[in-house]
TrEMBL record, chain A:
The lineage of its organism: Bacteria, Pseudomonadati, Bacteroidota, Cytophagia, Cytophagales. Coiled coil: none annotated. This is Alkylhydroperoxidase/carboxymuconolactone decarboxylase family protein. Transmembrane segments: none annotated. Residues 22-102 form the Carboxymuconolactone decarboxylase-like domain. InterPro entries: AhpD-like, AhpD_core, AlkhydPrxdase/COmuclacdeCOase, CMD-like. The keyword Oxidoreductase applies. Keywords: Oxidoreductase, Peroxidase. One of its GO terms (molecular function) is peroxiredoxin activity. It comes from Cesiribacter andamanensis AMV16.
UniProtKB/TrEMBL annotation, chain B:
Residues 56-198 form the Radical SAM core domain. Residues 218-351 form the Arsenosugar biosynthesis radical SAM protein ArsS-like C-terminal domain. Coiled coil: none annotated. CDD domains: Radical_SAM (cd01335). This is Radical SAM/Cys-rich domain protein. Its cofactor is [4Fe-4S] cluster. GO terms for molecular function: catalytic activity; iron-sulfur cluster binding; metal ion binding. Keywords: Iron, Iron-sulfur, Metal-binding, S-adenosyl-L-methionine.
Length: 111, 354
């Protein structure tokens, strides 16, 4: 067993998850490939969304992969940071909007 | 910033660059030899197709010192082509014309080609011969001093296709690669080129931009990057251009130094090797190009030129001996840096190849 839970070298081994379950892995990677193809959104826009989600779910592999991918797709530093702020705003907002629930409860219980 | 040569840096020696490229990895494994990759797809030895582009490096002198430069160009480089050697180039093109083996395009590169004192004379002579002339202009030269301010008009008068490096539409990333303030000057130069009609629909004046990554990563798809550059440059600066050529940085000279110094060399080479694309390999630019060095030596491409790898023994090796038929018989000289032209969608002086 390795000394840490995360090892950067494991990112390149993502495809090996098929070793313990080839059929589902194939379905996943086929789907994954299709998702990131240019459609109504450009590949660069999808890459920025992936980068934002990577930060929201705090996946180090995904941050590594989609920082590189964003650079390759021509995203600027400013665009990448704005995407992360979108993730941060939604995460922060998700906490804060529950403040309404707290306020409702307070008001319900108060005279 | 000084050139590697002026710093007496070990990687200014092409022999040592080739040693790095051919060395085993720290774990003892070796990257597969490029020749073997080509052999596996039936392309070895690599032979020319039809000679279409006569690329002339008129010198290593440049007003910029870009961090990725494969030429190791800069103000301290004094190697530039003499008028006599330019005349030998013209004579060679004339002989090819007379023999019915015309080469239609002449691609002028450097350094900053405009800094060669015989540059304008050479362009005029080429234009008179009906050649399509491309100039790899670094943009900032147009603003470098007043004697260059009329370059857009000069290019226009001679039907020159202008091919200009602009690694990104953000100042930060452009300046990181090409030097502080380069982005702002490049934008002003592009506006000057637009003002005389370059890049404007219907003008017939071609303005191409060149994108290459500002770091240890490969370029993305050309079409998507072109769309993004067009949108951003038009929106932010009102700039128009015809096409964006996406070029991969080859691991030689200053870019090799950057890769080694930053600890990115192994991963970058691995990415190039793993991204080997047979379709790109079939379309590499050395198959339809000949590269002439500042001293008249002949090479398969500008990268081989900088690695001091001349055309194969037995082929004419100097412009005075230029002979299309003899050159077509040669095997193209290959080494590990060639993986840069075959990775992903491929790379050439004209952008992606696959």
């Amino acid at each position: 067993m390795q000394g840490t839970y995360y090892n950067p070298a494991d990112l390149a081994k993502f495809g090996s998850i098929g070793e313990f379950g080839p059929e589902l892995a194939k379905k996943f990677f086929d789907y994954y490939g299709e998702v990131f193809k240019e459609g109504e959104l450009t590949e660069r826009e999808k890459s920025l969304i992936a980068l934002a989600v990577a930060h929201a779910i705090q996946c180090p592999y995904c941050i590594d992969a989609y920082t590189t991918d964003g650079m390759e797709k021509g995203a600027s530093e400013g665009q990448m940071m704005e995407a992360i702020h979108v993730a941060a705003a939604i995460r922060g907002g998700a906490s804060l909007v529950h403040g309404v629930q707290m306020m409702n409860k307070v008001k319900e219980m108060s005279m | 910033m000084k050139s590697l040569k002026r710093q007496d840096h070990s990687l200014s020696d092409s022999f040592l660059q080739l040693e790095v490229l051919q060395a085993r990895r720290p774990d003892g494994r070796a990257f597969p030899r490029f020749e073997e990759k080509l052999e596996s797809i039936g392309l070895f030895p690599l032979r020319p197709t039809q000679l279409e582009i006569f690329q002339v490096n008129v010198g290593k002198m440049c007003n910029q010192v870009c961090k990725h430069c494969h030429v190791d160009a800069g103000p301290d480089r004094k190697e530039i082509m003499t008028r006599e050697t330019m005349q030998l180039c013209l004579d060679a093109l004339d002989r090819a014309d007379a023999a019915g083996q015309s080469v239609h395009t002449v691609d002028l590169t450097g350094g900053a080609p405009e800094m060669n004192p015989h540059f304008r004379w050479f362009v005029q002579e080429l234009h008179q011969r009906g050649k399509h002339v491309m100039v790899r202009c670094n943009l900032t030269i147009i603003l470098a001093n007043p004697t260059y301010h009329d370059l857009p008009q000069f290019y226009k008068a001679h039907g020159v296709e202008v091919v200009s490096s602009l690694p990104h539409f953000s100042a930060r990333r452009t300046d990181a690669q090409r030097g502080d303030g380069v982005f702002e000057k490049s934008i002003r130069a592009l506006q000057m080129l637009n003002a005389v009609g370059y890049g404007i629909d219907g003008s017939g004046l071609q303005l191409q931009l060149v994108y290459n990554p500002s770091g240890a990563f490969l370029p993305g798809a050309q079409a998507g990057l072109e769309r993004e550059f067009r949108q951003q440059l038009q929106r932010q600066f009102g700039i128009h251009f015809n096409s964006l050529y996406v070029i991969t940085n080859l691991p030689i000279s200053r870019f090799l130094d950057f890769l080694v110094q930053s600890g990115n060399y192994e991963a970058y080479m691995e990415k190039l090797v793993n991204s080997f694309n047979p379709a790109a390999a079939a379309n590499v630019m050395c198959r339809n190009t000949i590269s002439v060095g500042w001293d008249g030596q002949l090479y398969d491409c500008d990268f081989n030129q900088m690695l001091d790898l001349p055309v194969a023994e037995g082929a004419p090796r100097h412009i005075r001996d230029f002979d299309v038929t003899a050159l077509q018989q040669r095997a193209i000289v290959l080494n590990q840096h060639c993986y840069g032209c075959t990775a992903g969608a491929g790379s050439s002086c004209g952008g992606q190849t696959a």
